Amino acid sequence: MPYDADVAALVRPFLEGQSGVEEKRMFGGVVFMLQDHMCVGVWKHWVILRLGAAAAGEALALPTIEECDITGRPMAGWVMLDPDRLDDPAELAAWVELAADFVRTLPPKPAKKKASKSRRTND
User: Does residue 97 have a pLDDT over 90?
Assistant: First the structure.
């Protein structure tokens, strides 16, 4: 099942216009990158949130928040927000902001090295 574009449309406005945000397709869904780090995503009909270990642990104590396991192996520091929690825009905004606040604490990713051109010699 592909990601739910309607759910992505609910998330997108909370991140659009912020510096360093890029939308990418991956894992059969869509991910919103912040400063080159995955921050929030949509997979099937779920919103996935990168909260860090401490906040994710607290969130998992709440109803309709699940451990993020989209690959068969749980992703530490990530949670999945049940679609039933998407009806309240203020609540969704708070979750997205919590994820963005965490990602902003992460160190910058190192610059990617450009592939060097190999030199061919005709001996």
Answer: yes
What's the predicted TM-score (pTM) here? 0.84
Each domain of the chain, given as residue ranges in start order, spans: 5-103
Strands (E), 6-123: 21-26, 29-34, 37-43, 46-50, 65-67, 78-81
Compute φ and ψ for 36, nearest 5 degrees: 70, 10
Report residue 115 as tokens. Answer: 């592939």
pLDDT for residue 70 = 86
| Topology classification of domain 5-103 | Aspartate Aminotransferase, domain 1 (3.90.1150)
Strand order in the sheet with 29-34: 21-26, 29-34, 37-43, 46-50, 78-81, 65-67
pLDDT at 52 over 90: yes
Is-contact 57 71, C-beta < 8 A? Answer: no
Does residue 71 contact residue 45 with C-beta atoms inside 8 Å?
no
- Residues 61-78: pLDDT tens digits? 999 999 999 888 999 999
User: What SS3 string covers 23-47?
Assistant: EEEECCEEEEEECCEEEEEEECCEE
